[in-house]
Amino acid sequence: MSLLQTQNLSLKQGERILIAGLNLTIGTGEAWIVLGENGCGKSTLLSALAGWFKPYGGAVMLGGQAITQVVPAQRALAMAWQTQQDECPFPLTTLEKTLTGRHPHLSRWEWESDADLVLAQQQLARLDLADFGARDLASLSGGERRRVSLATVLTQQAPLLLLDEPLSQLDLRHQQQALGVLREEVQEGRSIVMVSHDPNHAAQFATHALLLFGNGEWQAGVLADVLNAEMLSKLYHHPVFEMQQDGKSWFVPIA
Ligand SMILES: Nc1ncnc2c1ncn2[C@@H]1O[C@H](COP(=O)(O)OP(=O)(O)OP(=O)(O)O)[C@@H](O)[C@H]1O
């Protein structure tokens, strides 16, 4: 089933066309990795998919309805969006921040339930943050705060996750742990669109890839059809070498 679709979507920042005529269908249980150079339009695309950034042309469809017609409260039940910004202007504990993921599920004056509390604590524990609940968010390291932001998105329990570099600032072990969590989410039937700067995250979690070339051009499809050394070398303007291990492709930049 298609959760989210783009129809002939074009995105422009200033005078620059970033993405032209993008046709994408994100189905249930699909994991998309979005790759491309700095400034090619990855975050702009996620913002458009979330219904915030106004397209230059075309449309984003959520469950068959133009996203502009879907009220924000309904959007928040359908998708969770992790941006690159982890700063919080208010003093909050880690648990309070994580519980904000439940807001779309609560009515105006309703407090979070015990079940919400347990759910938030479970998501923190999945990302090695079980003992961080009472900590002031501002006292956390960059990587810890990034994991709290991912735990918050998971607490929202939306069928579609839009993740903007969720693994940036994470060390090797915590990257692997987070990738394992994302695989579990996909196995449970969620769909993910994840921006990354590491094409090797693809082999570890993705079913599909979207490559953005920053000049309007794009390539999208099943991982094996899109991701190869030639395409990545073109994408990054740098030669990339492909290695096969256990039936998976791994990519190494040539120094
Ligand atoms: N208001 C604006 N006016 C003009 N250009 C803008 C504006 N906002 C963003 N841009 C430019 O749009 C381009 C796309 O930005 P975006 O944040 O989508 O890139 P990105 O692919 O996510 O980059 P990164 O990998 O660095 O996170 C960038 O070159 C950025 O400088």
Automatic annotation (TrEMBL):
Tell me, what's a Pfam family for it? ABC_tran
Q: Which keywords fit this entry according to its UniProt record?
A: ATP-binding, Cell membrane, Membrane, Nucleotide-binding, Translocase, Transport
Record SMART domains? AAA
The segment(s) forming the ABC transporter domain are 4-239
Q: State what protein this is by name.
A: ABC transporter ATP-binding protein
Q: What does this protein do?
A: Part of the ABC transporter complex HmuTUV involved in hemin import. Responsible for energy coupling to the transport system.
Q: Does the keyword Membrane apply?
A: yes
Instruction: Quote the PANTHER family the UniProt record gives.
Output: HEMIN IMPORT ATP-BINDING PROTEIN HMUV
- Record the organism: Deefgea tanakiae
Q: Does the keyword Transport apply?
A: yes
**MF GO annotations:** ATP binding
Against PROSITE patterns, the record matches this protein to:
ABC_TRANSPORTER_1 (PS00211), ABC_TRANSPORTER_2 (PS50893)
